[in-house]
Amino acid sequence: MKSRLHVSVRDLVDYTLRSGDLDLTSFGTGHPVEAIRAHQRVQRSRPKEYVPEISVHHQVETEDYILEVSGRIDGLYNYSDRVIIDEIKTTKKDLNQLVQTENESHWGQVKCYAYIYALQHHLEHIEVQLTYVHLEYEAIKELRRSFDRKTLQIFFDTLVVHYLRWADTIVDWIQTRNDSINALSFPFSVYRPGQEEMIEEVGSTIKERGQLLIQAPTGIGKTMAVIFPSLKALSQGQVVKVFYLTARTTGKTAAEAALDMLRNNGLKVKSLTLTAKEKICFNPERSCNGTDCTFAKGYYDRINEALNDAFTYDRFTRDTSMALSQKHHVCPFEFSLELSLWVDCIICDYNYTFDPRVYLKRFFQNNDDDYALLVDEAHNLVDRAREMYSAELYKQPLLTMRRQVKNRLPQIYHSLGKLNSWMLTERKRCNEEGNPRAQGELPDDVCSLLKQFTAHAEDWLKLNISSPFHQQLVDLYFEAKRFLHTAERFDDNYAACYTSTGEDFSIKLFCIDPARHLRETLGRVRASIFFSATLSPMHYFIESLGCDESARTLRLPSPFNKENLCVLVAGRISALYKYREFTKFDVARTISLLIDQKRGNYLIYFPSYEYMKMVYEIFRARRPRINTTVQSARMTEHDREIFIEKFKHETNNHLVGFAVMGGVFAESIDLFGDRLTGAVIVGVGLPPISLERELIKNYFNNINESGFAFAYVYPGMIKVLQAAGRVIRSETDRGVILLIDTRFTTPAYKSLLPQEWRPVLVNKFDTIGDVLGDFWNL
Predict the structure, then answer these.
(1) Phi and psi, residue 570, nearest 5°
(2) Could you give the count of Cα atoms lying within 13 Å of 682 in the half-sphere of its Cβ?
């Protein structure tokens, strides 16, 4: 049985006909939602003989495989004496200029549709029409041509012959990849406890087109346990691409390492690690067009040759992608996006799948396809998603830009003046009626003003005139567009938040519940696997991540010896904000008693910098000879490396680090052996009371009567458990966790602690020494 390779009409045409410069500074393309609405408006305006949205399929059989070409015609006029294929294109560019220059790709697309339709319906002649729609003015230009089927066949066959040279490479690779995966064995001689069960559940979920949430502690080997069965599903044709989504660099590194280990065992698979544009751009100070950047000039003339060269590689890390881009003189970020179409596994941040601003439209805009999403550290996705689907505007940048364009760009100057006046009025209202404040209605008036500003900004930015404020205007333009696009989503899951801060003011469209938006993406893929060491309680994550009610869950216990971990609870010391002044000395004394039982490295976690500083000063005064290191709010990457490096060495002395829960030192750091002796967690990690948290609380009180838990308790305890998870990282580690707060003894919080923990109450200071004396002497 011959294998099949799928290609859309659009991708076929783009691959074979593209040429010229890359231009990402076009400010007249419009938003996908605007384009969809324009398409629908045109389709509704057509006569009764018009049929919208026609799917077409065509097969080209070669000696070794079948190429399946498919697409969707925007519409056709089905008259009794003739058929006209209609392809609708939306734009904000000048229509008169647009139609004067023939767009080969646009004509190529509609001609391919016409050929396939004519072939299937036995038509010797057929007409085609390009319909250009101006998104702002709703003007329409229609270009029509007639073709006989023979002419269209010659055109189509020419494209296919050109494409088949590339398709041959793809088909040969898929066979090589599948053979290697089928022969691939698990890279370890034995499974870790729980690992085999996790692999089986992932494989079954992908096969059955489902969703799976896995809570698996450190040490099970989560990364390998999700990647290995996903690759098996790839070779069996269940999925066509695997997305490994992670929020941190350490997650990307772990995925790359797992694939490299499998490659060492014979795996042949192409993987790509996507890097943010600003981190790999060769000319960050220049605009992305052929005039300003040599890597954009002639990009499409060189991209296919670069792809052919790239296909001799299997592992596209940041360095590999940049080296190939330099070699072929193409934009590294766009080259990475092009590679994403052809690789088997994409390692990237959450936003490339879920964020409406930067998600990979080529995969997730319209297509429903057999993709597998592997979501690492999935507990981070809830709040990340809230930010993805929210938008905020500040007054000060508007005012600064207005001053810069004064006497230069009068229309932009006046539109920014109206926006500034609106913000001044709202700032005054905030100060008089309550600051900050929220309302459930979309502020239509500011949206109207933003539309005026973006229209004027577009007109000027299209000219690509060099100026000292050009980049700042570009940034402000996109912030305004993001706000407007978010406004289109505004519903009862949103609130408009108004905040006055000194002379500044901000308005934020805050997404209270991102579940509906996440659900849209999850509905476009075959399977979604969420995994983390902290996915409790499961019902919270199923609801917050937009999973189906039928989503499967798996909870795995720690694979390590329970006797290697000692968990203490100082349940008579309150960490409540109102009692901190009274209990801070007891907290410092408790920390001292803990570290006195065994010399080593300790991390002390607090819910805020202020609380951390309060206790740290007492501790330093009490124990001046002990080495300490303290996290600060404005640490550079170098500062963070220095902090962690101090814990990379085993010591016979004391080192006590003070850090905040939920920060960079509370997640995704591995301190094996004696590099971390214990951790103290002060408080239950509740987020500070804020307007946004109160909105979440009130919203979920109405939905499920669990508002306080959804807004405060669950997010706080996730931070507690992540911090505690730093202590035991391998089967040989031994360590202690001390929880300080009365709330840890109450059912609401105690029930969220891992079942394998056996916490010991130490309500008297002397008890700490007694319990730890026995533990360390084992």
Answers:
(1) -85, 85
(2) 33
Which regions of 552-642 does DSSP assign to beta strands (E)? 552-555, 565-570, 601-606, 627-630
For the chain, the average pLDDT equals 93
Are the C-beta atoms of residues 399 and 423 closer than 8 Å to each other? Answer: no
Question: What is the rounded CA–CA span in Å between residue 265 and residue 187?
Answer: 7
Using CA atoms, how far apart are residues 37 and 395, in angstroms rounded to an integer? 31
CB 112 within 8 A of CB 13: yes
Residue closest to 677 by CA, chosen among 755, 566, 576? 566
In terms of phi and psi (left: phi > 0; alpha: psi -120 to 50; beta: otherwise), the region of 274 is: beta
CA distance 158 to 765: 84
The length of the chain in residues reads 778
Q: Three-class SS string for 650-718?
A: CCCCCEEEEEECCCCCCCCCCCCHHHCCEEEEECCCCCCCCHHHHHHHHHHHHHHCCHHHHHHHHHHHH
Residue carrying structure tokens 């567009």: 481
Query: What is the phi-psi region of residue 20: left when phi exceeds 0, alpha when psi lies from -120 to 50, beta otherwise?
Result: left
The identity of residue 523, as a single letter, is: G
Q: What are residue 68's DSSP bridge partners?
A: 6, 59
Backbone angles phi, psi at 182, to 5 degrees: -60, -30
Bridge partners (DSSP) of residue 76 are 51, 85
Q: How far apart are the first and last CA of the chain?
A: 64
Residue 62's Cβ-side half-sphere holds a number of Cα atoms within 13 Å equal to: 17
CA–CA dist 474, 614 (Å, integer)? 43
Task: Express each pLDDT in 186-211 by its tens digit.
Answer: 999 999 989 999 999 999 999 999 99
Structure-token pair, residue 128: 């085609």
25 phi and psi angles, rounded to 5 deg: -105, 15
- The helix/strand/coil state of 481 is helix
Contact 308, 331 (CB under 8 A): no
**Predicted local confidence at residue 750, as pLDDT:** 95
Q: What is the pLDDT of residue 248?
A: 87
pLDDT digits (tens, 9 = 90+) for 438-484: 999 999 999 999 999 999 998 898 888 889 998 899 999 999 999 99
Express each pLDDT in 57-113 by its tens digit.
999 999 999 999 999 999 999 999 999 999 999 987 888 887 788 889 999 999 999
Beta strand extents in 160-227 (DSSP E only): 211-215
CB 274 within 8 Å of CB 347: yes
Measured on CA atoms in the order 359, 360, 361, 366, is the torsion positive or negative?
negative
Q: Which helix (H) or strand (E) holds 90?
A: strand 83-91
pLDDT (average), residues 707-731: 94
Dist. CA 771–CA 773, nearest whole Å: 5
**Strand blocks (E) in 349-468:** 371-376, 391-394, 437-439
Q: How many CB atoms lie within 10 A of CB 237?
A: 12
